[in-house]
# Entry
Amino acid sequence: MSEPADFSFSKRSYFLLLSILIVACVVRVVPALNYGQDWYGEGSFTLVNFDEAGSCRAALDGFDYSPWVGWQTLALAEASGLSVPDGIRGDARAVKAFCQSESHIVIARLYSAVAGVLTVAALWILAVLLFPAKPLAAPVASALLALSGWHISESMVGTVDAASTFFIYAFTCAVVWSVRHDGFRWLLALLLLAPAVWTKYWVFAFASLAVLIPIPGYVTLFKGIDRSRALLLLLSYVGLFGIVSTPELSGLLIWFLPILFYAVVPWSRLGSAAKGFMLLAPWLAPALMQVEIFAAFTSAGAEGRFGTDYGAIGWHKWLRNPVNIPVVLVMGLGLPGFVMAVSGLAHLWKSAPLDRAWLALLPLLAFVLYMAFLAPVTYYRHYLPLLPLACLLAAVRVSHWRPPLRAVSVALLLSWQAVLAVDLVTDYHFDPRRDLPKWYAENEPQRVWASYYVNPPPDTGVGHRLFKPAFVRSGSNNLRQSDTLILSENWYDTAFANELNGPLVHDPARLIKTTPESVTFYRRAFAGELPFLVKRARLRAPSYMPELLVHRALYGSFTQFVGDIVILEVEL
# Structure
């Protein structure tokens, strides 16, 4: 039996939405309050994700980042009785200590968790606005997002990613609502534009200005171009931007590349306005590369404080970026949900009518194309705004099926999503670092070199020093001044395939945040080719879902900052 047409506004729907939000709240808030607590003793707090509270640090002039969320978490801290110490503004070290203290981190995590819950509600509203004739789309999409282990994990830490995603979808809802009803609602959309952009410099929100152009204008401009040709033109156009942003190309060559775009334009089908548009459009790519901020956000620099920088990836990003998008969506939706999302996208591409409200999704389309073709920085959390849309696509596809198959499909999607979430989120609670006190007690090391992110337990009586691969250079005896080397995957993964390096890792000069010397050391150490290093233990969080197991085999741990800990004995 199918649902009533007004299900999205019925008492039953409100009860279902409330139930989903309660579940979403519990699975985000509870971990946010417990992550890092009591790891190294009763009452202890261990900060593992050093990207947390970056916005707080920016709000106190101690870090170059967007201060939007930081202003709010600091206001909440002040209201709860946690005041900023006098005289620390502008002091990077003191600001970092305050913002990453347990007291403020808990507030930042609660803010993030609440933003994650509100995103679930925003997705429900967006589904109702876009698909009023598909009443099942809203609850299924919201439930998929509520149970997403990836979204839960990003919501329970104090970065700005969950908050940014919420403001993006709140803004999108406001734009769609305004298009449908006009009137004062445009003021709400304008107000929400500021946090949608400013929370994380998400400039793609400005693409929503396209809704101000009437549909007849688009019909006139693109008359004679069917959907298949439109897709080809779009991919070719963005591909052109990707090519000209490759650092290896000379400045002279990029001014000839726009001519290649003309080969895919169906000139004979176009009117005068469309021909003029197509003649001028490709030259925007090399022109923008002359603008410093655009070049920085598409190419980045080649060198940084850790060796290579994000721009070192060069043309390898042409494989890395398109690979990362399906990877994160498989992890965020589960394999069945990802298949449904792809099917839903194909279905809508073929059947969705041209509606001005759909133009409100152009910022998300621009963002996915940027992340697929241009982005030099590709941490998984940067892709988070794509997840709610993918949940919606999967839900819309399922809602088109007949009731018996639909019920089975929804049950499969949600149960798989829940089990994957348990496997993914428990990584935080079975973090390998929690096993370090036991290992220290059993092995009693005396002098330990540890890499970044190891976070060795305090009060062990052991001398710890920060390890750098340069210590093993010819003629250096630094490493042999210790008896143990402890490495965190979150640091040594720079030498292997991961979200920043992509699958092509044969050229050490193309790897990010490392040096060829470091790459050689890590690879030889793990291959057992260094006679003075013997691997004694590998601590890792357990996994059982196929998505996580495959990712670990090919790309290492999926959960950022919760990687393996490898312990090697230094033989003198």
Observations:
- DSSP finds 23 helices and seven strands in the chain.
- The longest helix spans residues 317-351.
- The chain has a mean pLDDT of 91.
